[in-house]
Amino acid sequence: MYLLLLLSVTCSVDARADVNKVLDDWHLAAAKANEDAYFGHLAEDSVFLGTDATERWDKAAFRKFAHPYFAKGKAWTFTPARRGMAFSKDGKVAWFDEDLKTPNLGPARGSGVLVLEKDGWKIAQYNLTITIPNDQMGAVKKMLEEAAKGK
């Protein structure tokens, strides 16, 4: 019984380390403009949700959007300041949320899902958001409503 529990803990520790490595490497690939490494971490059927309401991309569309940034030699820099993580009971799905430091967006948050594929963990969904302090929500809401009128 003790050995089974120990193996279970070891597997989850290894999985946590593996998922952290994928996410950290993914962010580093963007900062270094390594397009192949960046998109290599995404599952083929992945979805990226950006900060703008129109930004919902499958992998091919996201790569097309992002390619000019990578081609210039620097895409974007997201540095995780905190990351939470959980796993499905079978250990084949992980979901996470992370607080990000970014030079262009300011404080931001990413969340998503990774799936364990034959060749390792792949990001199936990533959702990039900008956090808004509750006491500022009224002003932001007004701004969003004004923007929606212009569409």
Q: Could you outline the blueprint of secondary structure elements for this entry?
A:
Layout: H1 2-31, H2 35-40, E1 42-49, E2 56-58, H3 59-71, E3 79-87, E4 93-101, E5 108-117, E6 120-130, H4 137-149
Parallel strand pairs: 1-6
Antiparallel strand pairs: 1-2, 3-4, 4-5, 5-6
Describe the protein.
The structure is a single chain. It is built from 4 helices and 6 strands; from the N terminus they run ααββαββββα. It is α+β, with helices and mostly antiparallel strands. A hairpin with a 5-residue loop joins strand 3 and strand 4 (93-101). The chain has helices at residues 2-31, 35-40, 59-71, 137-149; strands spanning 42-49, 56-58, 79-87, 93-101, 108-117, 120-130. The protein has one domain: Nuclear Transport Factor 2, Chain: A. Mean pLDDT is 91; it is low at 1-10. It has a 6-stranded mixed sheet.
Number of strands: 6
Question: So what's the CATH class?
Answer: Alpha Beta
How many strands, what sense, and barrel or not for the largest sheet? 6 strands, mixed
In terms of per-residue confidence, which ranges show pLDDT below 50 for 5 or more consecutive residues? 1-10
Percent helix range: 40-55%
Percent of residues in beta strands: 25-35%
The CATH architecture can be given as Roll
**Physical arrangement of strands within the biggest beta sheet:** 2-1-6-5-4-3
The assigned structural class equals alpha+beta
Write down the CATH topology. Nuclear Transport Factor 2, Chain: A
Overall pLDDT confidence: 91
Oligomeric state of the chains present here: single chain
